[in-house]
Design brief:
By secondary structure, the chain is an alpha/beta fold. Helices cover 38% and strands 13% of the residues.
Length: 191
């Protein structure tokens, strides 16, 4: 378990309780690891493809926590809009949206490293201490496919290339570290 996952679950319980108590319908959408052009690339804490691309463009090594063997289902944001619109007119209270294909974080880091090398950026990968997170995160999208016609055709190399070039065009967005009230247990690089 990790606090991020627990907070998502707590939000779902809040929605269900509100429906039970007040009769308010809800749709709880669980999009995961959506990346792409126009996605916030200034965060130091979210959206790994954006973080890796931004660091490479600034000629800093790509930070990877642990071995990089963590697997995630990265999706191009362009596949999210259509099912979200359909959800407005569908009785589907809980739905996960995202890719079916898994990629290891180290694979994504190496794709960005290859793109950066073609851009004459000589960067490497910094392996940081492992943080408290799920090693393999997986969601089923069967309901989204059935009810919303969701289809994800993410080309991971093209997605990484697009994110890299989007950030290259918008490097005026500076990242800044947040000030946390509690630093204990935060990953190195966050504080």
């Amino acid at each position: 378990l990790e606090t991020y996952g627990i907070s998502k679950l707590a939000c779902l319980y809040e929605c269900q309780t509100t429906k039970d108590q007040f009769g308010l319908d809800f749709s709880y959408v669980i999009p995961h690891n959506f990346q792409g052009k126009y996605v916030n690339s200034s965060s130091l804490y979210r959206n790994f493809i954006g973080i890796a691309a931004r660091e490479a463009l600034n000629e800093r090594n790509i930070p990877v926590f642990g071995s990089g063997e963590q697997s995630r289902q990265f999706s191009d944001i362009k596949y999210l809009c259509d099912p979200l619109e359909k959800l407005l007119y569908t009785d589907c209270p809980i739905v996960s949206l995202g890719a079916d294909t898994y990629y290891k974080v180290i694979e994504i880091a190496n794709i960005i490293k290859k793109i950066a090398k073609k851009d004459n950026k000589n960067i490497d990968i910094d392996f940081l201490p492992e943080r408290h997170e799920a090693l393999h995160s997986w969601c089923s999208h069967d309901l989204a496919k059935k009810i919303l016609g969701f289809k994800d055709n993410t080309d991971i190399e093209k997605l990484c290339y697009d994110v890299y070039n989007w950030i290259k065009l918008s490097l005026t967005h500076k990242s800044k570290k947040m000030k946390f009230q509690i630093n204990k247990g935060l990953p190195k690089g966050w504080i």
